Fold this protein.
Amino acid sequence: MNEKVAVVTGGSAGIGLATVQALAQQGWAVAIIARDEARLEQAAAMLRQSGARVLAISADVADAEAIDAAADRIEAELGTIEAWVNNAMSTVIAAADKIIPQEYARVTATTYLAQSAPSCDFGQVGERFGNVAFGIDDGNHRRGQFAPS
């Protein structure tokens, strides 16, 4: 297969699903990473009906080891990752004084710290993943950047 491979975190609903659909319509093989297995499988089934090659992986983006394992599986099953879209996020709707520390920690872990995609040397990013959108520094010296292919 010569198709490009893209990964979308939080790709089972909303903007993430719309992103996956757009990529699939343009001929990309897509991997969807999300926590909700039922929604994940629904999204994958819908995409497969349209002829897309899809890999659905249930993982928590706040778990770096799980995301590294997902990246390895994606490359083994679909091919070299050429685009990585970080879309997963968490929110808490409440007055600030009603939000407990664990909720703040979850939002921070999912929405901000998890935006660094799979852990790898930045020197190898372009070689391994091609076009990868990274988020903020997660404390492991993987400062946000875009690595053109």
